From TrEMBL:
Record flagged with keyword Signal: yes
A molecular function (GO) term: hydrolase activity, acting on ester bonds
InterPro entries the UniProt entry points to: GDSL, GDSL_Est/Lipase, SGNH_hydro_sf
Signal peptide coordinates: 1-18
PANTHER family registered for this protein in UniProt: GDSL LIPASE/ACYLHYDROLASE FAMILY PROTEIN (AFU_ORTHOLOGUE AFUA_4G14700), GDSL LIPASE_ACYLHYDROLASE FAMILY PROTEIN (AFU_ORTHOLOGUE AFUA_4G14700)
Pfam families: Lipase_GDSL
UniProt-recorded name of the protein: Carbohydrate esterase family 16 protein
Keywords, sorted A to Z: Hydrolase, Signal
Amino acid sequence: MIPLQLINLLCLASAAVATPNSLAVNGSSFKYLVSFGDSYSQTGFSITGAKPSTSNPIGNPAFPGYTTTNGNNWITYLLQPASPTTLLSYNFASGGATTDASLVKPFQPTVLSLIDQVTLFTTHLSLSSSTSTPPVTPSNTLFAIWIGVNDVGNAFSSATWPSLSQEITTQYLSQVQTLYSSGARNFLFLTVPPIQLTPMVLAESNATQTQEGAAVEAYNALLAKGIKEFEGKNEGVTTWVFETSGPFEEAIKSPKSYGARDASCYDADGTSCLWFNNYHPGQAIHKLVAEGVAALVGL
């Protein structure tokens, strides 16, 4: 278990200040993006604060929000502030989140697990096409989930990991089923990236890196299996699975192409290295993720 990675989440205490640099959205039928996850996705949105608008598509705080990149992350790269065609983002992601805090504890008890995040959504938003405020509907809303770096990173070395990872993914898909029951029909799933290649894990032994890499692969395989089963038992579902290993490995293979001196440096400016800190990717990797997602889903 490597709990030190979660200490880095404290960097979320200050707002990012970089100039927005969004990708174009090409006329997708989706008007809303509802997302869940951890610090790789967090923007600091509060459902009780200002709601998303074309002037600020993340609603609150100021765009691009509280991120672990010192600027845009993969979600905000997908948005177009002040554009009439921008996606409006309801982002429930919480830095440090695990899927189920009773299975893998987060770094502090106030962190919202995936279960907590889904509960917030079902409590505060409706997918009824006739009564919804705002008018989120099954057809105009894309649901995205990117979680697991803390589940795997904190628990991969446990002797119970084979059974625990199954419990985690079962709970994950249970929350997806809850979203489906609430009306969600379009789902984007992002896999756990190769966190064994983060600077923090590269500082560990080769054996630890190998073990964590194997745990990532096993987790993603369980997730893929669960998604297939979910599709098979629910009508009207459209799913996309984005393999995040591609963008990470692309940047790591050619760091100088993305403004970094090497593949393992990190800097809180979010741009001069591939990594914002020793566990969080910087803006270049996030932009690659956004570009891949946009191509896959047709945004």
